[in-house]
Amino acid sequence: MLEKRTLLERITIRHILLAGLLLRLLAVFFSPGYAFHDDHFEMPELVFRWKNNINFLWTGSDVHVFSLIYPGLMYVLFEACNAVGIHTPEGMMFVVRLFLALVSLLSIYYAYLLTLRLGGTKTTANLAALAMALFWIFPFMSVRNLREFFCIPFLLMGSYYISDPKLTTRSIFLAALWFAVSFSIRLQVVFIPIGIGICLLFNKQYRTKALLFGLAFIVAYMLTQGLFDLIYYGDPFANIKEYVRFNSNPVNIEIQPQGPWFQYIGTVAGVVFGLPFLLLALGYGYSARLSFHTRMLMIASLLFFIFHSAYSNKQERFILPFIPFFLLLGIIGFYEHYARNQHKRWLRRTTRIVIAWFLVLNTVGLLILTFTYSKRSRIEAMIYLRKKADVTNIVMEGEVSLQRPPTFYLGKHLENFVMPPEGNIDTLENEIRTSGKPVPNYVIMAGSHDFDLRLARLKSLFPNLKEEIIITTSFVDNLAHWLNPKHNQNENWHIYSIN
To answer: What are phi and psi of 482, to 5 degrees?
Structure first.
């Protein structure tokens, strides 16, 4: 144990940042694609439509259901790419991944600073920073466009400033600013500054500063999301109103993935490979005993976790902003608990076994995920058709309900035709003839189940179909589908030309 502590004390935050940067650069180069539907369609696809004056509203309202500040930042990046001669979707997304990777380094740095500020030692600060740098999903997620992950650096920055032992006016306003920025990226994270405000308010020492923090957050909101909405929509609260309206509608809730209240406990346990969850959960709870500030962050992050556990819409990505708090407070709390109880032989043995278990699985996961091309078949199919340069329209046909094709990589927007598994070929023929949309000259068949029967059905309408290419999926796409086939669709895409 002494050698491990010595090693952790010898490395510096610069070493850890360099390791984090290296892994993220590997993901920039070797991990294109998108992880979740919203990762792509609420970012590149939205910006693509925005830039080309194509309607991107889909809730029946004149206000987009998500904040446009983050997509607006990507809009600027796309414009900068075009200005320097980068015009292909692949090239622009490479720049976006690089930008996201660099921003994510702030998570590593502020996890280190926050741990020190919370009373941690150099060892625990290095452990927290290493967790942010080397945790198996973080390099992969760092180059994705997810709101739930992009908000994390700003949450940690806000947490650092609000944990200032002196809690100066400057610290309060900086904390409010970064929490407001994170809120503009992902609205649900508001429960973290709310939890912090409640903890401050119920502490006599900080009661006045709690009111100042609340006021500062309102001002910071008005200068960020509020100002944007006022200029763009004429209402500083337009986005919040639309988001609440849409997500409080029972009809809209029911179409989303549902799950029990305890689902996210299993999600977090799975993300940290099972056994380490027990030690981290012990440390996370124990951290509340260490100081007012560790208790404050534990309660605030737990409030965020409880909200998502109570809300019926359950998607794995929703809980991502909680993971850094769980890791950081878990490390601080367990390290302190271990230091006080290391005379217990069973605790020393259990800790060694769990650490070894985690290091092996984390290394394997890191090596696989950092080099994975997620949603490969969908993207490569669009790139193939873009290079053909003759696409008028597409018929999407699948063995299950189909996701929209990522037409951003096609370089043109299409209102494509859809042939679902339960669809009727005569209905498709009538739609092609009467819809007014361009006539299709390509068919994409997604999936291989009952393939010959499905192909025969299509040939009854398009007798001269010619196979062009089969775009296969990546290993991780196959693994995600195997783990959760209901919500992780994964198919080879067979492209046919209509002659």
So the answer is: -65, -40
Which tokens go with 485?
A: 């086939």
The answer to pTM > 0.85 is yes
> Final residue of a domain: which of 354, 369, 384?
369
Whether residues 143 and 202 share a domain: the answer is yes
Structural domain boundaries, residue 105: 2-369
Residues 196 and 345 in one domain: yes
- Cβ atoms of 381 and 444 closer than 8 Å: yes
Strands (E), 300-406: 394-398
55 and 97 co-located in one domain? yes
**Six token digits for residue 104:** 């994510």
Residues 352 and 391 in one domain: no
CA 219 remoteness from chain centre: 27
- Rounded to the nearest 10 degrees, what angle do helices 275-286 and 345-369 cross at? 110
Question: Distance between CA atoms of 498 and 107, rounded to whole angstroms?
Answer: 50
Whose CA is closest to 243, among 186, 282, 202, 176? Answer: 186
C-alpha of 100 from chain center: 11
> What's the pLDDT at 1?
36
Q: Please give the structure tokens belonging to residue 372.
A: 């994975």
- pLDDT averaged over 10-residue windows placed end to end, the chain, 499 residues: 62 96 98 91 94 89 93 96 96 98 98 94 94 97 96 98 97 98 97 98 96 98 97 96 91 83 95 96 97 98 97 92 98 95 93 96 95 93 96 91 86 92 90 95 91 93 95 79 63 92
Residue type at 231 in one-letter notation: I
Q: Any residues with CB less than 8 A from the CB of 190 and at least 6 apart, and which?
A: 183
Q: What tokens appear for 370 in the block?
A: 């950092």
